[in-house]
Amino acid sequence: MSENRFTKARQNKEFTHIDVNSDAKNSTGATPSNKIITRNKSVVLLEPNTLPVSTRSRTKNGRNLTIPLFVEELNIIEKAVAILGQKSDTSINNFIRQTILDQCKKIIGKDEYQKMLSQQLNVIKTPKEKN
Prior knowledge:
Elements: H1 2-10, E1 35-37, E2 43-48, H2 58-61, H3 71-87, H4 92-108, H5 110-118, E3 121-125
Antiparallel strand pairs: 1-2, 2-3
Helix pairs in contact: 4-5
């Protein structure tokens, strides 16, 4: 399922709204491009961002990336953040996120990075279906 999502992102397809005929059944059984089924089988929708900067939140409107670490790896990260924290106000989450994004920018190029970053999407959690 996630391979399909990344393929669409690589092809730079725009996410579309599917609620026009929401009562119609999808005969192909394919997941719509703005609907994601997560690893824990919950369904989330992606919609273009319409929120002001002050109310948009990574925890409420974003997605999570979970990376298992050995204890010593986490200790290294914590020490690096503690040293950086003496020079500037930073958190472990911000440090990890910014480090990953900086590497992505080097790999995909500044123009493609800015293009993708400008296409802001928000996660909309769907209500759980009752069986």
